[in-house]
Amino acid sequence: MSHPVSHPLRGRCVIAGIGATAFGKLPGRSTVSLNVEACRAALADAGIAKDVVDAVLVKTPTSAREILYGQKLAEALGLQPRLNHALDQGGAANITLISQAVMAIEAGQCEVALVCYADNPRSGSRAVYARPRGEDAVLGWFSTAAGYAMIQRRFMLEHGVPEETFGQVAITCRAHGAANPRAQLRKPLTLEDYLAGPLMIEPMRRDDACLVSDGGAAVVVMSARRAKELGVPAPVPILGFGQGHTAWEVAQRADLTTTEAAKAAAAAFAMAGLGPRDIQVAQLYDCFTVTPLMTLADYGFCKPAQLAGFVGEGRIGLGGDLPINTAGGLLSETGMPGLQLVHEAVRQLRGTATLQVPAPRNALVSNQGGTMHTHATLILGH
Amino acid sequence: MDLPLPEIDDGNRPYWEGLAGGVLRFQRCRACGHAWLPARDACPNCLAAEAVWEDAAGEGRVVSWVVYHKAYHEAFQDRLPYTVAIIALAEGPRLIAGLDAPDQALRLDMPVRLRPRKAFGMTLPAFVPAEAAS
């Protein structure tokens, strides 16, 4: 179901390089230090010197906020960029910043952008994830997980999605992560293990929740023309992107079981001139297992009531028609909120993934943040 | 860390004073009629700053609920497991509230009735199944 009309930004810019730190526990490292390491690696991967970089766009560290963070990072990188800011949008910020880089490049506001993220909640403080939720904390309403558990309950009962389907998402991501030598959690999971896992905030079990990780990741964005001029070895074209923001706190939403992810995907598919059937591999934000399940439905891969079959038939595993999170995702590779998913999409299209899908043409990435408050979609392809 | 209690100010005082008297109050916009919680100065529908407080009838339905098996604060350690719900009031506003019922009895959209709960020196919004309340 390809769409014939070509968007002017389709394929104009590329991901020229990717780089990351190790994932897991990295004590004694500041978020700025981790960002610099990731940027150094991304520049080396793109085969370019830092002097050509004229935009530094960073997602704010979730666990440790600082004012003027973008400028602190640019200072550590020894740059005085034309564009420089930190964005607070939760996990959607990575793709949003990549799309901002593309729009700025096309508008002549910059030429080469570093987009990056780093955090150290595993060695530092993970208090943000267990936080009291405003005035409702007096009722025991605490933690990031609880909001997702509310959505999971309604989604399970409204659409008849059994707990085994949630387990199969975790099992799939953990199986893919087990093959990834860089993954933080490489122990495979069985359905028996999943169902025996303790309930944390019912109906959510231990293995529904992603990892807490230290680490950093970066990508270099530039125009396809500039990449050619600079001799970038393996550029991957950016075909489409979009955003949609649900915004309301979970209790205030008229509908708990859909989000504005559908709008984000529709914009990305329209820009790319593609539809769900044109995607051969997807990296779906998996902070909790309910998130990729709802994303599959919101993006139009199947109806919510069909998810048990879609997932149960192995379609999201390697060898299925839509393998997801082929490096393990947030559930297995690293709990870093989202940029590692862009990296894996780039590796799949370069043909350098550990669990390589045979010659994919188009790869899709979803990023989201808050309690499904924010959403951004990215489509890469040849 | 002490349990963070709601900070009561001019904006939300009618809500907490209402609960202390056994009544759940919400705000309604005099300009457009929209009703909401929690307290805010401007109507999130039409942005007019003409809110008045109304008493809810105390009837609602369960949008969703979770059961905590882990205490994220020591104040809840001896209350485990406990239930937190999203309740949609008959008048429209939605809120986070306690839900006092056995988990097996709960289902989506089941009717519930207000039964405020005293805890931590305050009166908190909580509900029970409607049939149990009569």
Task: Name the features.
heterodimer; A: 382 residues; alpha/beta; Peroxisomal Thiolase, Chain A, domain 1; two-stranded antiparallel ribbon; 11 strands; globular; B: 134 residues; mainly beta; OB fold (Dihydrolipoamide Acetyltransferase, E2P); three-stranded antiparallel sheet; 9% helix; 37% strand
The total count of strands of chain B amounts to 10
- Helical content of chain B, roughly? under 10%
Report the principal-axis shape of chain B.
globular
Radius of gyration of chain B (Å): 15 Å
Strand content of chain A: 15-25%
Say which CATH homologous superfamily of chain A is assigned. Answer: Thiolase/Chalcone synthase
Order of helices and strands of chain A: EHEHEHEHHHEEEHEHEHHHHEE
| Largest inter-chain contact set | A-B, 31 and 37 residues
Could you state the order of secondary-structure elements of chain B as H and E?
Answer: HEEEEEEEEEEH
Distance between the termini of chain B: 40 Å
Biggest sheet record of chain B:
5 strands, mixed, barrel
Strand order of the largest sheet of chain B: 4-5-6-10-7
Give an account of the 3D structure.
- The complex is a heterodimer of chains A (382) and B (134).
- Chain A has 12 helices and 11 strands.
- With 382 residues, chain A is an alpha/beta fold.
- Chain A has a single domain, classed as Peroxisomal Thiolase, Chain A, domain 1 (3-Layer(aba) Sandwich).
- With 134 residues, chain B is mainly beta.
- Chain B has a single domain (13-133), classed as OB fold (Dihydrolipoamide Acetyltransferase, E2P) (Beta Barrel).
- In chain B, 9% of the residues lie in helices and 37% in strands.
- Chain B has a 5-stranded mixed beta barrel with strand order 4-5-6-10-7. In chain B, strands 2-1-3 form a 3-stranded antiparallel sheet. In chain B, strands 8-9 form a two-stranded antiparallel ribbon.
- In chain B, strand 1 (25-29) and strand 2 form a beta hairpin.
- The longest helix of chain B has 8 residues, at 13-20.
- Chain B is globular and about 45 Å long.
- The model of chain B has no long low-confidence stretch (mean pLDDT 96).
- Classes of the chains: A alpha/beta (382), B mainly beta (134).
- Chain A binds chain B through residues 130, 132-133, 135-143, 146, 149-151, 153-154, 157-158, 198-204, 250-252, 256, and chain B through 3-7, 12, 38, 63-70, 72-73, 76, 79, 81-82, 84, 86, 94-98, 103, 107-108, 119-120, 122, 124-126.
